[in-house]
Specification:
2 domains; binds UDP-4-deoxy-4-formamido-beta-L-arabinopyranose; alpha/beta; seven-stranded parallel sheet; single chain; Rossmann fold; UDP-galactose 4-epimerase, domain 1; two-stranded parallel ribbon; about 350 residues; globular
């Protein structure tokens, strides 16, 4: 059984990917520092798959700890999620982001080289595109000046991977996520934002659950159909399955080039107001919201051109935004016991 290291594997996207890997027959070992995840996620994974993945609490900024880990495990591939990911926090504390996100990547890649590990999947983001010149966005759209240190760490990480693949026998794939939402339909795992949710859908579900009184819609004066920003909301389980596809592509040496990039989205843009309406329709829950000022750093509209992932990897989304919103609400109700 091939053994895959999933860093950040107790996080939102990481935990869903662990389940998808187990279902595809892989043995999984998780590294997580628990800075933005809870160890209890392990039992959620086990309740779904019946198998508890190996887990080591480890700070990837500690070079020696990373080296020690690889001495204890024979790894066939790495899927690297572990990173700080709050846009606003990265603006206030850029050095935390550059240290955590970049040191972790470099130490992991050094150990891959040291241990002959050639297959590496990187968690990137559509944030690297900034405000796109045209839509839908293809993978060869220009990477723009990052709007936040968080986005910049994703851009720099992709460059580190590209250079490393050129110089060594490493093969890597960067997956540029659009907006992941929803939860596994078992409601055993899902998104657990710490404090006040920054992202739209967890704020919506917490408003519906009565934890928040009002959802603030950050601007309705954008040049879009209804004035609110447009994003490409992808079901997190679709996203997880794309990681398995990408990993299998590397393990079977299908890629012609050592480094590849894929957009992971639905190809459909939805506005903030459309998401609210869809949530109300699917769940029957009324959302109390108010239009407020724009949020600095928001792009007007972004959604994926999904052709490459389909033609090259044979992957496309299978689940609708409505299904994702229903699963997010089911998860929120489970967490809050309502
Ligand atoms: C979506 C839309 C907001 C909250 C960010 C990162 C991206 C990835 C996902 C980590 C925007 C609006 C939101 C609210 C609102 N993160 N909104 N009220 O900003 O597209 O992407 O999170 O990997 O890299 O950039 O996602 O969910 O924060 O916002 O009106 O309370 O919802 O203005 O238009 P975003 P989001």
């Amino acid at each position: 059984m091939q053994k895959i290291l999933v860093t950040g594997g107790l996080g939102y996207i990481g935990s869903h990917t662990v389940v998808a890997l187990q279902e595809a027959g892989f043995e999984v070992v998780i590294i997580d520092d628990l800075s933005n995840a809870e160890a209890s996620v392990l039992s959620g994974i086990t309740r779904i798959s019946g198998t508890t993945p190996l887990f080591e609490k480890l700070d990837l900024r500690k070079k020696d700890s990373v080296a020690a880990f690889f001495k204890n495990h024979s790894i066939d591939g790495v899927i690297h999620f572990a990173a700080s990911k709050a846009v606003a926090e990265s603006v206030e504390n850029p050095l935390l982001y550059y240290e955590n996100n970049l040191h972790s990547l470099v130490y992991l890649l050094q150990e891959c080289a040291q241990n002959g590990i050639q297959n590496f999947i990187f968690s990137s983001s559509c944030t690297v595109y900034g405000e796109p010149d045209s839509l839908p966005i293809t993978e060869d759209a220009p990477v723009k000046q990052a709007i936040s240190p968080y986005g910049n760490t994703k851009q720099i990480s992709e460059e580190i991977l590209m250079d490393t693949c050129k110089a060594t026998s490493l093969k890597a794939i960067s997956l540029r996520y659009f907006n992941p939402i929803g939860a596994h339909d078992s409601a055993e795992i899902g998104e657990l934002p710490k404090g006040v949710p920054q992202n739209l859908v967890p704020f919506i579900t917490q408003t519906a659950a009565g934890l928040r009184t009002t959802l603030s819609v950050f601007g309705a004066d954008y040049p879009t159909a209804d004035g609110s920003c447009v994003r490409d909301y992808i079901h997190v389980v679709d996203l997880a399955e794309a990681h398995v596809k990408a990993l299998q592509r590397l393990l079977t040496n299908e890629s012609q080039t050592p480094y590849e990039v894929f957009n992971l989205g639905t190809g459909k843009g939805s506005s903030v107001l459309e998401v609210i309406k869809a949530f109300e329709k699917v769940t029957g829950q009324k959302i109390n919201y108010q239009i407020v000022d724009r949020r600095p750093g928001d792009v007007v509209a972004v959604y994926a051109d999904t052709k490459k992932a389909l033609e090259v990897m044979g992957w496309r989304t299978q689940r609708s935004m409505e299904n994702a919103l229903a699963s997010a609400w089911k998860w929120e109700r489970k967490v809050r016991g309502i």
